[in-house]
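Illustration: Class I SAM-dependent methyltransferase.
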Amino acid sequence: MSESSPSPHATAHATAQAYNDVAALYAELVRDALDHLPLDRAVLAAFAESVRAAGAGPVGDLGCGPGHMTALLRDLGLDAFGVDLSPAMIDLARRAHPDLRFELGSIDALESADGELGGVVSWYSVIHALPQDVASYLAEFRRVLAPGGHLLLAFFESEGGPVVAFDHKVTTAYRWPVDDLAGLAYEAGFDEVGRMLREPLEGERYRRGHLLMRRR
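Result:
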């Protein structure tokens, strides 16, 4: 990292502050978003079925935002909880879903014990991490997953180009080539189970990528 590059800690907290500032609006925008995304729901259902089949512990929704995804994972039969670095998001999640557990914390330094979780969902939660820092997030996801546990990554795909920054509506984010992100996950100790690429719908700018991985 060069002297002028922000630290992972600084980047994460700047991202959390950006989400604090738009928390209520963001929660309203994403509340029913999956109702119109059948392919995304299918990926989540496949992840849930894989975790249930493995029978290996609770599932962390890492970067849970206002908790809508955590609630969906619960509805899919999983013992789900959420973690987010934004206090405003955690407050919204707890108020909207008082029956679920939500923790304030950084997803690259989780309180979960080694091998404690049966699944991890990172639904657009590492898109704001600097590209050189993503490997550390994947290493943390592997640490908390039991052997054979599953990881689901959702991200903006770069459509044949390299990793590239773009002007996400909240704060700077990055688009990844699906092969590059899959390779990085492999190096971190994950084997690919499957992938889904979805072309942008009306009102969306970029292709969406989804990787279902299994911890070695």
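Reading the tokens back as a structure: The radius of gyration is 16 Å.
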